[in-house]
Write a structure and sequence with these properties.
Length: 140
């Protein structure tokens, strides 16, 4: 993924990304955030967003909550189309493969998310959409 990276068009998210990079990942002390770069499914451009994560062993887990909106976020649609992603955690950047989880694994990881950030349960309650849970496994 050697192309220019385009940050989220959402002004709040773009500012969060800027602060994340400037602080070496400490934009929101006490929160576990990462930067996820996906390839745009229509544009082919590299798109970067900031997400909360939980760890599951060596894997990173994120959710497509979209703050409880009734549609999946663009970053999720992008990684479904191309699961090869780049992740930045703190100042470390690595390539990964993303996959949506289901069944017992999804339920277990969702509970971990809600335990870490209770607002995620409100997001789930505010939509009829099945909120995806995504596992990112480093490839290097």
């Amino acid at each position: 993924m050697g192309d220019e990276i385009h940050d989220s068009p959402d002004a709040w998210v773009a500012e969060h990304i800027r602060r994340y990079v400037a602080t070496g990942g400490n934009a929101r002390p006490g929160m576990d955030d990462l930067l996820l770069t996906t390839r745009g499914r229509r544009s082919g451009l590299l798109r970067r967003t900031a997400l909360v994560f939980v760890r599951d062993g060596d894997r990173y887990v994120v959710t497509g909550s979209n703050a409880g909106r009734d549609r999946n976020p663009a970053w999720y649609l992008n990684l479904v189309a191309d699961p090869r992603v780049t992740v930045q955690v703190g100042t470390d950047t690595f390539a990964g493969i993303a996959r949506t989880v289901a069944g017992p694994e999804k339920r277990r990881l969702w509970r971990r998310f809600v335990a870490a950030v209770p607002a995620y349960e409100r997001y789930r309650e505010s939509t009829d959409r099945d909120i995806p849970v995504v596992v990112i496994e480093p490839t290097c």
